[in-house]
Amino acid sequence: SNENNMFTGVIYYKVADTETPKCFEWNFDENGNVVRGASEHDFADGKCSLCGAYNTMGVTYGYDSGNNAYYVADNRSLKLSEVTILEKYNDGANGEHDVSYVMNGAFENNKNIKKVILPTSIKRLDGGVFLGCSNLEYVSMIGIEDMIFAQIEVPYSDSAVVTNNNFLGCTKLTVLIVGEKFNLHPNSDGKEQQFLSQGNPACIDVYVYGTSVVNCSNGSEDKNGLLTGNVYYYSETEKTGSWRYLDGVATK
pTM value? Predict the structure, then answer.
């Protein structure tokens, strides 16, 4: 308010006498003068170049001690429309490691998210990840190779989770960016129910970041009926049947 408008709004916290102040920290020097760190972070690729803090943007991560890795945890209440997942993370207790998978139901029924960018370090979706995300329009998951269909043991659950239905109910999703090793049917038995349509019209076009032919046919059943069957391959230049990034957005 105007009554206290001499405040800058920046708050610094004192560190231990032996520590050098980082962003938003302060200390006394040898002469008793106040020394402070930067008044704002300098984020590059999600990490501050000045103090090493991570810009999580409110995204919650969990630690998997068995694999010495982090995963995307419960973000069902996340209030962001655009979500960018970090490639590496450090919770302050377990050191810096890759963020390598997304837990079962991580964004389930989140109506806020419209665009999600997963880094190449993400290799697995643990089922129901985007289930019921009815406003989701754009997903990049270049690091995902096999859409695993199985029951797996995970550290965040006492029982096995099923890795299916990752995109069930995503009826506004039109852009799905995958790598050239993407395989919707790694078991070759057609049981991988990931893009179940439930009678909704097909809406998802697949954008391959590469030139190799990927296995992403939707088949004749409803299990992956949200896929349109249209697949576009990456090209640096404008070319019919291809796509490229324009201002960072996948564009046909």
Answer: 0.86
